Task: structure prediction
Amino acid sequence: MADTKTMTIKISRYNPEKDGEPHLELYTIPWSEKTVLLDALQYIKDNLSPDLSFRSSCRMTICGSCGVMINGVPKLACKAPLREYQEGLTVEPLANFPIERDLVVDLTHFMEYIQALKPYILGNIRRPSDGPNKQTPEEIAKYHKYSMCINCGLCYAACPQFGLNPKFLGPAAITLGRRYNLDSRDKGKSERMEKINSENGVWGCTLVGYCSEVCPKHVDPAAALQQCKVDSALEFAASVLNCKKKEASHGNKA
Amino acid sequence: MHTITVDVAIVGAGGAGIRAAIEAARQLPGSEVALLSKVYPMRSHTVAAEGGAAAAWQDIDSNDLHFNDTVSGGDWLCEQDVVEYFVAHCREEMIQLEQWGCPWSRKPDGSINVRNFGGMKVPRTLFAADKTGFHMLHTLFQTSLKFPEIRRLDEFFVLDLLVDDGRVAGLVAMNMLEGELVQVRAGAVVMATGGAARVYRYNTNAVIVTGEGMGIAYRHGVALRDMEFMQYHPTGLPGTGILITEASRGEGGVMLNKNGYRYLQDYGLGPETPVGHPKPKFMELGPRDKVSQAFWHEARKGNMVRTPDGDVAMLDVRHLGREKILERLPFIRELSMFYAGVDPIDKPIPVRPTTHYTMGGIATDQNCETSIKGLFAAGECSSVGLHGANRLGSNSLAEIVVFGKVAGEHAAARAREAAQPNASLLDAQAGDVEAWFNGLLSRKGKEKWATIRDEMGLSMEDGCGIYRSAELLQATIDKLAELKERVKNVGVGPQSEVFNTDVLSLIEIENGLEIAEAMAHSAIHRRESRGAHQRLDEGCTQRDDENFLRHSLAYYNKDAAPRIEYGPVKITKSQPAKRVYGAEGASQEKNSKEKGNG
Result:
């Protein structure tokens, strides 16, 4: 950061042992065309305020650690160039999650919801000695986009429904369930549909679509959730039809 | 301090740690396997691996060919029995990952595809576009959710081990969110904490790759083996060091100097191969140490492009065409565009060597067990003896699953036979850790850990870089000794106990200094040039099998310099020969084949 340009940014600070609620503090930092917000946060920690807490790891948009609100919009700090915020920059922790300290939020529920959707291959008894499954590029294409989720949580910070009801399983978790439902190697769809159709499942989604807008990996969770709704509607219709058929055949016998 | 008791504790939830956890869970149904990590599993650095994972896959390939490439690639400093085990088990693990859901890239018929990688004679690198590590890690993490035995302790920072009479008995960790210490008693512990390239200033690594696992084992008397061998990846982005995968070259990308000349032909990797027709073990498909060394020489000659972020070479993939770049290298394109402002479809990518992979690590036997009974290590933090003096690209993603499994299996066996813990002894040890930790929290002083970190990183680049000499190394050794004194004066300010990354950064850097010392001292004692350890000083510029076909072993020596000893190298079927690539390599191979046939 040899550049002489400087910028003053606002960062939300919160010490759970002292502060009643978060407050904004100002920091002046040097920046260049290449500086991203994560560089600025590290600069502040290194030079101005070593007690600033935030999460980071890969710094290359693949680990999902550094999600924050920038001027009210969920973003990855490593993917936010300061040059785009010369009009002003306010950094806050991800919305809709409990704040632990400064920019660190509690992701416990998020992790539970991911687990709840059983995001793993079910019902395939093949073993390594049987050799790999075949899966054509066309079959991969069905689920591939949904396998690109980095679990950054930006879609939860964007989701008004999750904001209202923290029990809503939410975009990333349901999308991951959808990813496995669409995988030709998997046979666990009915197990997952139970959860997807449950009280806090896909029907909580009100089709706002903001989740897909903020997704840094273009996973398009909104589409995944709509497909889940179609699936569960079809399943419901099928079950009604089956029921009617059964009734009918029952009736015939009588 | 809160105490929990589990059967096996695994430190680190990257690829190796999760694979170990799954295996331990499979071996011990109904048990408890604690999986601790200072970050959520998906944040582990495995996620950033791009190019692929190796296995002899095609009919034209064989375990022997993979063995030969690995052993010669490691400049004969590999444990050959370990390499034999490794190559024989890669395939099974790749299939296992497939069956767990890993979206390997496929051919039109639905079979798994492979690509070329540096130093590999046959295309044998399985890949998931250029996000292989990401897909492997998420597949492993998601699969781990199936096992009720696995008890994840996310964001638990491990501070120290508990050891009873030469046998591991557990560990002490900090619950980062609560700021509380917890004692974890376990019949076996697996270290899977990753490498330590963050002791260098410019590297491809996540900020978490600071090497505490190595530091903890080292302070308990376990040797760090072959620490002088640090891999510089030839193609990091200037400034940030962000990784541009070797698969760019595997797919056919070429390296150019400022004159547009494919300079690798001048460094034992030629003759030049036609653009768009990459040839295994020639030119851009040379091993990483040689390709990075060639850069160093070209930069010395003034043949590289000068930029504010230092000299750069140009990696040109334009001839692959838009479609192939989007299919095979989409992430590389995204990274180049965002972090270097270059769309590789239209322009070459500026690249330079940056530290990437720690070849050495916690010394283990072939079961991944260390000199402390019940303490295991797997993956980049370990030195099981696979990589020797230079790792081949795509061998480490295979290593984490092959040896993650081995570590988990053997850790489970140790846990089964573990005796009742000596509670009062462990409580006392945990108490000592707590006292030390509280001492850190109240430490006063004017030094900043960030300054120490930066000075360490720059000094390691200067003295322990692509080329070394006694003089340069001594300067680094002196600097590290100075920093070890100064770090005692780093103050930690009063603050919340919740998510106190100030004190954790200090711990990371204190561990980093120990590891950097082990690297620099191992390097100055190795008076030869081999693989990634190249020396410029007289009498040291050639490989010296007579004196140095041996593993270095660095032992912790409290405040004094590490003690450097040596151990034998296991040779089974490949006698050391001249390590050559390009035309010379091809003719060597031909001769040895003829001899073999005759």
Q: What stands out?
A: Residues 501-525 of chain B form the longest helix (25 residues). Chain B has 16 helices and 24 strands.
